Amino acid sequence: MPTQALLLILLLCLLLLQAQGGYHKSKRMQEIQLIKEIKVCEKHTTIYMCRRPCEYHQDCQANNICCSTFCGNICMSTLQ
């Protein structure tokens, strides 16, 4: 009887994890993969560009990408 109760509790815990979105480790892996996509800016950057911070490419407007500079990740135009 005690083993059946432990199995039931384990099953309920797994169902609860699924309802909350799964394991946190898999979500963290997705974030790491998104961060790896951000590369160093190929164009020359100036200090005023640091006012446009970003974390992902989706944070930037159209025709802009998120890239890494001396002041962190910023949105930079791909057209210029």
TrEMBL record:
Claim: Transferase is one of the keywords in the record: no
Signal peptide span: 1-21
Phylogenetic classification of the source organism: Eukaryota, Metazoa, Chordata, Craniata, Vertebrata
Domain named WAP: residues: 46-77
Record organism: Vulpes vulpes
Gene3D superfamilies according to UniProt: Elafin-like
GO CC terms: extracellular region
Protein name per UniProt: WAP four-disulfide core domain protein 10A-like
Entry keyword annotation includes Cell division: no
InterPro entries for this protein: Elafin-like_sf, WAP_dom
UniProtKB keywords: Signal
Top-rank taxon: Eukaryota
GO molecular function, one term: peptidase inhibitor activity
